[in-house]
Design goal:
heterodimer, A: 841 residues, six-stranded mixed sheet, 24 strands, B: 325 residues, mainly alpha, 72% helix, 1% strand
């Protein structure tokens, strides 16, 4: 067991302004569970990112099994047997468990045809050691978080991982799930897999780890055998000084009640019947395990999430719920746990960010009073000691600690101009400030500063609620500690009686039984799963519902609608839009969009008629030429997308214009003519069925099969769903994107050929409008513009809906112009029905 | 240990790299280069008549693009602008029927209608959470249909002389259309840079959740951008009518994608939260000048489309490369 699997030597990594890792050396034995602990900002994630190939060290070497390796990207690391399971899983939610596990390595029969049976079998085999009954065919979004984690582990195992890095794996687990995780880790260990277990929960480290390495401020402070270490020892190594020195001394006894919460229950049930009081001058710590509802409580108090029942009173005044603006006016401030996503607008400057909540206090007739603003901001920056070259500095360049101070400064800038709304009597910002993980991701020095600031604010008379997962922080800062579990407040401890053990006992439940937790989670998860399931089907269903409704109306209202020949007319008209929409669906699924299709259609129509000119012998080469044009546009679009990094919307907007120009240079009016043979494509019938419709059916079926049953098709959907996950699985993302563009161009070219066959000549006015119609059909059919979700069946519904609508309105002799309105309104309705319950793009 | 810099010139801020400065000002450099090239390629370019013609031509698209800029900074997009513009053009002709007496009423009605369309867009996006691309696309279709119903597809032909005054005539040497365009652009630029609304808009476009948690009424801000964008589209329609001299069915086709192109070339990002009127102005002028050059060089007018397409791709590729590296 003492065989060395991994050795990292003298790893150094510097980011602008901070040295994340300073000559860190780290060794792992084969088959051990090695815990990696350290405070936020200690360097754990950076070290692991380097190991995972996600970032490169500035210097140092890595040896795997004694041989130096260069982990240049995540795929390389994975191929070498290093798998990483991140906190936010790298899964594609709308693809099945089996597809996720085998992504990039799908077993194929000949010609890229998926062997789905084998794939499912391999997936089940990967899940076997984990002793679970997950159905590998269901989509991942239907699984609970714990089950998704199992899928991730199975994925790692199927990659023959010898080293699995788990980043805070217990963060989202409770009760029985956590026990399962530990069992699995034991199983993996028995199979000889090495595990690096990153966690800030020392109790887990003592439970499952063989050795533990402590990082502090980018330095490896030491590695201990867990059996010989004590918790106090580890904490001392993590913090580097006695706990007492980090935290400022407590202040005066608290004053009057400033915040009162009565019976608060949130709409989603994650907070249940919570009542508490905060007094001026005190810092109240809120402890609990992840998932206990602390953040949800703070957000509910602040009005960021809807409340089902209960009240919030600030200084005796009732605060209206579900509106942060009103909370701010009442005197609340909220420093959220994710400063980059929720606390700051990264593209704006320090000044603009700090000024944001208090803009109305420094305006005249709607104009910002810049001089006053600069003064107020400068004062805030100086008070909080925010280190920045100037207040105009874009906030994204500040270090984590200074960013956090900037978030805090937002609230302190309120009330500085004599406007007493929502502030303490001293007119100095909100009366109550809610902090959620205030020192996450911040180096130790900045942490001490923030602690001092918080105590100073309390001394000024503010009431502070501090949510934290770091027990030393809770113990060091709080005058009182509240503990939450499963959405309820389960205990309150005074400063004197609070200890890590006491808190944990309350947070975890005395006997460790967390039945209620599992039940609650399950209910919420079930609810979410059901919603998600209905979401997945909603889009497709919506379009067919509307289609059926329209058809029924037609059958009743227009006798001519009921004939078979009319049906085929509709289908023939649907063919043109249908073919180009197939191509559009493919590119949208891959995460792109193609506006240039209309120009490709025009060019193909023009060139086919203009070059063939009634000579049947030229049909074959000219058709090939036109298809080539489609391919060419696709290549150009794809190249600009992946190489130049231009958004597909813009690229294809450009090629749309270019293509249109070329077409109009070639011909301003209808040109050319086509032989009967060619025209029969659009007009001939086989029995009662038009050739064109048969052709469309064939193309549709082939495309559907390609998307669902070939490795390429699945890769395409994966790329659209999450390009990073696809890349990690070894999929050639860029090539897939270009291929999608080419297919779209090809489909457009075919449509153009069909149009010239229908019209008998090449008309440059044919084409414009197709691009938006195709996108309409795709969107109405439920394919999401972001990619990764939806499909051809929905598009077919969209195409049919458009065709049937047009046909019906014509038969009913509705004015051409009214048709536009009605069509637009119905399509809008179909989209709104779907979107109402779905997410925005 | 903190240094607060003294007032620094807006062009160069410490901490702002060369690449960023280039990104911010590249479009102006390009515009200057193109203007220089124009002088070299065609002596006819700098004839006053041509210059003012360019300004006049750029006005309708310019006004449209100002509105589009506002919508895009907020993180949205508006594909109905061409439809609204056409509605205003045709509507004012129909209502006023070639006489000046009805002009004021006609203008007021059309601008009010434009705002209603903008309201519809905004409500669909904020209340129904329909993606802006889709919502404005369909609203545009409905508006176009309504317009065609109302006019029965016959060109209205006659415009009141007052409208012609706006679009075609000049005050002194400067075309009225250009005055309106630049005036509106100036107002928009001031609002974006100097008012609380402008600050809120950039925050909403940059990070809507952070803006919400800072107490900003995100939905209201977005709604306003769509109303303003449509209103400006209506104004653009009136200006265009005056410039072209008649109101028919095809006027202004394609202007929606053109306005997006001008805005994007000017540096405003589709994602929102960055960009500004200055860049859009330069983008509009750049595109219009290039198109004008094509004509002056006696090239087939359809090459304009090719030029436009290449400029779009080139400009955005350059921005993308700056941002990445």
């Amino acid at each position: 067991m003492a065989e060395v699997l991994l050795e990292m030597r003298d790893i150094t990594k510097t980011f602008p302004g901070v040295r994340a890792l300073n000559r860190v050396s780290f060794t792992c034995f084969k088959g051990e569970v090695h815990a990696l602990v350290g405070e936020n900002g200690a360097g754990k994630s950076t070290l692991m990112k380097i190991l995972a190939g996600a970032t490169q060290p500035d210097s140092g070497t890595i040896l795997l099994r004694g041989r130096p390796v260069h982990l240049r990207d995540p795929h390389t690391a994975q191929a070498l047997g290093i798998s990483t399971i991140y906190q936010e899983f790298n899964l594609l939610p709308y693809m099945s468990v089996a597809e996720n596990i085998l992504l990039g390595r799908e077993p194929c029969k000949r010609m890229g045809w998926l062997d789905t049976a084998e794939r499912d079998r391999l997936a089940r085999r990967a899940l076997e050691p984990l002793d679970t009954r997950i159905d590998v065919r269901q989509p991942v979004y239907r699984l609970s978080v714990a089950q998704q984690q199992l899928v991730e582990i199975a994925k790692a195992l199927s990659w023959k991982a010898e080293l699995i890095i788990m980043d805070e794996p217990s963060a989202a687990l409770t009760g029985a799930e956590l026990e399962r995780l530990f069992e699995i880790i034991a199983t993996l260990k028995a199979r000889g897999v090495t595990i690096i277990y990153i966690s800030h929960r020392l109790e887990e480290v003592f439970r499952i780890a063989d050795r533990v390495t402590v990082l502090r401020d980018g330095v490896n402070v030491g590695t201990l055998a867990v059996a010989e270490a004590s918790e106090a020892q580890i904490i001392r190594m993590m913090v580097g000084r006695e706990l007492g020195q980090m935290y400022p001394p407590r202040g005066q006894p608290p004053g009057e009640v400033v915040l009162e919460v009565r019976g608060l229950t949130t709409a989603d049930g994650r907070v249940r019947d919570v009542s508490l009081q905060l007094r001026a001058g005190e810092i109240v710590g809120l402890a609990g395990l992840v998932g206990s509802g602390r953040t949800e409580l703070a957000r509910a108090i602040f009005g960021a999430d809807p409340i089902a029942s209960g009240e919030v009173l600030v200084r005796g005044q009732r605060c209206a719920p579900a509106d942060p603006a009103r909370a701010i006016a009442s005197g609340l401030g909220f420093v959220s746990e994710d400063r980059k996503a929720e606390g700051l607008v990264l593209g704006l400057s320090v000044r603009e960010n700090i000024a944001l909540p208090s803009l109305d206090e420094r305006q005249r007739w709607g104009f910002v009073r810049e001089g006053l603003e600069r003064a107020v901001i400068a004062q805030a920056v100086s008070e909080l000691q925010i280190r920045t070259p100037s207040i105009e500095q874009p906030v994204q360049y500040l270090s984590g600690g200074n960013q956090q101070k900037t978030v805090l400064a937002k609230w302190l800038a309120l009330g500085r101009t004599g406007d007493r709304r929502g502030t303490t009597d001293e007119g100095n910002g909100p009366a109550v400030i809610l902090f959620d993980e205030p020192t996450r991701g911040i180096d130790v020095g900045a942490k001490a500063e923030i602690y001092a600031l918080m105590r100073a604010l309390a001394d000024q008379g503010k009431a502070i609620l501090m949510i934290s997962s770091e027990l030393p922080e809770i113990l060091g800062m709080s005058d009182r500690v509240l503990v939450m579990r499963d959405g309820r407040l389960v205990g309150e401890l005074a400063a004197g009686e609070a200890s890590e053990e006491a808190i944990l006992r309350l947070a975890a439940g005395i006997d460790g039984g967390r039945g209620t937790a599992d039940d609650r989670r399950r209910t919420t998860d079930d609810g979410r799963r059901a919603l998600a399931r209905s979401l997945g089907q909603q889009g497709v269903l919506a379009v067919y519902v509307v289609l059926v409704a329209v058809v029924l109306i037609g059958l009743v209202a227009a006798p001519a609608f009921r004939s078979a020949s009319n049906l085929f007319t509709v289908l023939r008209q649907a063919t043109a839009l249908g073919i180009v929409s197939i191509g559009q669906t493919i590119i949208v699924l891959a995460g792109g969009i193609d506006l240039s299709v209309s120009s490709v259609i025009t060019l193909a129509a023009l060139f086919s008629a203009g070059l063939i000119q009634d000579q049947a012998t030229l049909i074959a080469p000219v058709v090939l030429l036109c298809l080539g044009i489609g391919v060419l546009f696709g290549l150009v679009n794809g190249w600009a997308w992946v190489r130049l990094g231009v958004e597909p919307f813009i690229v294809t907007l450009g090629t749309l214009s270019i293509g249109r120009g070329i077409a109009l240079v070639y011909a301003r009016g209808p040109v050319g003519s086509l032989p009967a043979v060619y025209r029969s494509f659009a007009y001939a019938d086989i029995g009662p069925v038009p050739v064109a419709v048969i052709f469309f059916a064939i193309v549709f079926t082939l495309s559907l099969v390609m998307l669902q049953r070939t490795a390429f098709g699945r890769h395409l959907v994966a790329v659209g769903g999450n390009p990073e996950v696809a890349r990690l699985a070894g999929i050639a993302v860029q090539r897939v994107k270009v291929a999608a563009c080419v297919l779209s161009g090809l489909a457009a070219a075919i449509t153009g050929l069909y149009m010239s066959s229908r019209m008998g000549s090449g008309d440059p006015n044919v084409g414009p409008g197709f691009e938006l119609d195709a996108i309409t059909a795709v969107v109405v059919g439920g394919t999401v513009l972001g990619g990764g979700r939806g499909g051809l069946i929905g598009t077919l519904g969209g195409v049919l809906l458009v065709a049937v609508l047009s046909n019906l309105l014509n038969l009913m002799n509705v004015d051409n112009w009214y048709q536009q309105i009605i069509k637009g309104a119905i399509l809008l309705m179909a989209v709104a029905l779907y979107r109402q319950r779905g997410e925005q793009r | 240990m903190m240094e607060t810099a003294a007032r620094e010139p807006a062009v160069w801020t410490r901490g702002r790299s060369l690449a960023e400065t280039l990104e911010a000002y590249g479009i102006y450099v390009a515009l200057v280069l193109v203007l220089l090239a124009a002088a070299l390629l065609s002596p006819a370019f700098y004839q006053p008549a041509n210059i003012f013609n360019i300004l006049r031509q750029a006005s309708a698209l310019g006004i449209l693009s100002v509105g589009q800029t506002i919508a895009m900074i907020g993180g949205g997009i508006d594909l109905s602008v061409a439809a609204v513009m056409q509605l205003a053009t045709v509507g004012v002709a129909e209502i006023a029927k070639g006489r000046d007496e009805g002009v004021l009423a006609a203008v007021v009605i059309m601008l009010a209608l434009s705002m209603i369309v903008g309201l519809a867009n905004g409500l669909l996006v904020t209340q129904r959470r329909v993606p802006p691309f889709v919502a404005t696309l369909f609203v545009g279709v409905v508006v176009t249909g309504a317009r065609q119903v109302y006019t029965q597809a016959t060109p209205s032909g006659s415009l009141p002389p007052l409208i012609r005054l706006i679009g075609r005539d000049s005050t002194g040497p400067v075309p009225n259309a250009a005055i309106i365009f630049l005036g509106l652009a100036l107002i928009a630029a001031i609002v974006l840079r100097k008012t609380t609304f402008g600050r809120r808009l950039y925050a909403v476009g940059g990070n809507a959740e952070a803006a919400r948690l800072a107490g900003i009424p995100v939905n209201r801000v977005r709604l306003i951008t769509y109303v303003v964008c449509s209103l400006l589209a209506g104004v653009a329609g009136l200006v265009l009518a005056g410039y072209v001299g008649y109101a028919d069915q095809w006027i202004g086709r394609g202007y929606d994608l053109d306005s997006i192109a001008a805005v994007v070339i000017g540096g405003t990002s589709l994602a929102g939260g960055r960009g500004g009127i200055g860049g859009t102005l330069a983008g509009v002028l750049l595109v219009t000048v290039l198109l004008n050059l094509v004509l002056l060089l006696n090239l087939n007018v359809q090459w304009q489309l090719v030029v436009k397409g290449m400029v779009i791709i080139l400009a955005v590729a350059l921005y993308a490369m700056r941002r990445r590296g």
